[in-house]
């Protein structure tokens, strides 16, 4: 188990994440590690956090990512994990759990994430969904900078390049984008259902935890007007003000509700990060737990500094990991809150 040394200044959010769920079997003793598999996208993999795991470069996975924090924090509560696989990969959508993931020209695709699951797996922690609803494509629809060279490392394309970025809120709420977005959420609903089915088929004895997305835009969107403290631009770059509320309410909150409902139907445990991270969004200055859009991250790949695409930064990784671990310990293993 690797030690995570970054300070966890936002660990107080864990209290808000204790979901009312009937406790199951008590936690394993120190002598009984729980065979565990982590599935996920860039938020789980730790995109943008240095140093990178050199053995997983195509997936841009951090050497110390969300699973490391979760493992570390659960160990403090006498829940030891035997992490048999962490197959999280930047850019992964829900369907990459059962289909291979294209990682670019000349790069071997990432195999379906479900291949890491076995009959012996006893805990599955999954964090995916944003790419299925098309968050990257939505951001490119709303940002002229992302459509140019600044967005070259974000492989998604704008939904309609002919529609101006400045009009994206109207495009998605009144224009052709509204139907596109509806279809993306319909697909996410089907894929979430299939996610639980695939996990149940491969690992029928596993407890399943679905981790929701941390909040990107605060309820008070005026906080997004302030420049980033280090002078790296504005938290949402050139995304128009008219789209800030849309991103929060019609994309993130809607996805969070869908994930919670699907987890409940499947009998899985849902960790509601969105509900607890409203004071640590990309727009919260020195307290931000999300890297500002196009803000330089700490990671370098192929001699190029990676920009943030609204992924959790080190502070967010640590706070979210603490929160997920506390929620698992309490709701899944029946331990008293620490």
TrEMBL record:
<dbReference type="GO" id="GO:0016787">
    <property type="term" value="F:hydrolase activity"/>
</dbReference>
<feature type="domain" description="SGNH hydrolase-type esterase">
    <location>
        <begin position="38"/>
        <end position="317"/>
    </location>
</feature>
<dbReference type="InterPro" id="IPR037460">
    <property type="entry name" value="SEST-like"/>
</dbReference>
<dbReference type="InterPro" id="IPR036514">
    <property type="entry name" value="SGNH_hydro_sf"/>
</dbReference>
<keyword id="KW-0378">Hydrolase</keyword>
<dbReference type="InterPro" id="IPR013830">
    <property type="entry name" value="SGNH_hydro"/>
</dbReference>
<keyword id="KW-0732">Signal</keyword>
<dbReference type="Pfam" id="PF13472">
    <property type="entry name" value="Lipase_GDSL_2"/>
</dbReference>
<feature type="signal peptide">
    <location>
        <begin position="1"/>
        <end position="29"/>
    </location>
</feature>
<protein>
    <submittedName>
        <fullName>SGNH/GDSL hydrolase family protein</fullName>
        <ecNumber>3.1.-.-</ecNumber>
    </submittedName>
</protein>
